[in-house]
């Protein structure tokens, strides 16, 4: 029989496993764990290392191991590889190989968990195949302090000693496996819930990678057609995934080991716009390295930029000028939107859509918003159709309409009857639309809020209508003020720079649809390199060529599979009355059509592909993340304002209360003096004489003081001899 050396550090690992306590930084002969002798302690307070013949345990808070040994039910004798009898010295001989004994039961008393725990943010129930609860894993997060997990048995006590350890969501896993389905293994319960919300059967093990995968877990997957193991993108995550893969290999499972190339784990991967299909093999080279900054979901991922040469050129352009790539792209898209022929449209089962695009660049004063707009202007020459209407400042709703207006001579239908022009048509000057292109740039979005707050302003309404290519202006004014721009007869791009605190100007208008029509991008780029990037030169956009025939319509039709999905969603919206639609996301299909068409134009094509649509989806996801970030900021600012107002009210009430308390004290002191004067006068005195006893400054207070004494039943007043007399009540 083959035996192994079962040392004290091995026994300690077993004890901690039975207590549900994870270990960290485990290198075989050393690891760290939580201080069980300190409730709510950090997960690495206790350091454990193997030394010759024994295990050394040190709690950095206790500065020793006494309290920790008591907490796990050990004595000093248990620290040795060959347990010592009490009073026996340490052994100097190496440990004898022997069979691994079963885990020792500890004498530690069970502690009842008081729910909810401090900092408890989530609870994950672990059940057997029949759905019977075995234990829970509780997630604890105290912002700025620590994150921890506690295991609580079904009867409410800490620890899972003697309790069967199973996979998370085991009933669903067994059902999917027995049906020959796909099961995905991730490293934490939060990641499981992320995938389950996407319709994926997923699981993990209690304690995460620190507790080790067992063959019993693998047996639970019997029947699955394939198992996907998703590793966290770090050394520990890959090591854990390799151990799971080894077990799957031994049991003959078909499996793949994948990881994200844009985020640390599955939850962050999905938040960054990724799907399971985007995960890459752990053996595949990634364009990111571990020392690169992690790209937040509010920034376009590297996969977006690397998907085609036109986007790589824009990113190089931005980085060559030390600018954020996202806002540089947004500025270019807005300019292209206003510079292309107005006959360019996007088409879907819902009809035609203009390619007019408002873009909001969000960032602080020195983030590079203005420079991004300038870089977009320098990237390609201004086409003739945009001359004199390039980067116009915003004025008002009427001003936006006026951009397209002009004065022309028009025949009245009459002829000159005499003079040198006899027989010629009589002409008159009329105002009408004579332009079809405009690009509006607002360097500081505060002006939009200032204009919109004016009584009768139509700016927000005009931006909304222009974004959809609807008719602009008014026809019920005088001839001099009449403005009318026909639907789909113009191309307009709008670029707005906003500081985060001012962005609420647009966000608060969500009920009428203004923010839903914007592409939102942060002026932030964590991927900009330290090295100098070469300028890519002028960007060629064929659709901006002045020789292009503006009268020739170009329709960017969505791919057939996209059209089918859009039709299905549209039918559902009509049948349900749109009650399921998110207010801020109601314009998703139209906005993605615009994005996809403009990306195709920038790429030099006049038709939309499925790849354009996927890239438009990434743009939409990033835009929503930026917008949601700003919504959260607005809520936090509003909450802070409310708290400040409440604090001010409390402070005012406190000051008033203090003032009332002081007045009460003064009246009580006056009442005591009244009682003293009455006592010296035999218990009664006329009110007139009593008032004369006090300084003139206080006499006006005395009637109230006497009334106070009557209310407290220490005084009574009686009308006698033409005056009111005050008596002391014994």
TrEMBL record:
Region (Disordered): 82-121
A Pfam family the protein falls into: Toprim_3
Biased composition (Basic residues): 107-116
Listed Pro residues bias regions: 92-104
Gene3D superfamilies reported for this sequence: 3.40.1360.10
CDD domains: TOPRIM_primases
Superkingdom field: Bacteria
Span of domain Toprim: 185-274
Full protein name: Toprim domain-containing protein
Organism of derivation: Streptomyces xiangluensis
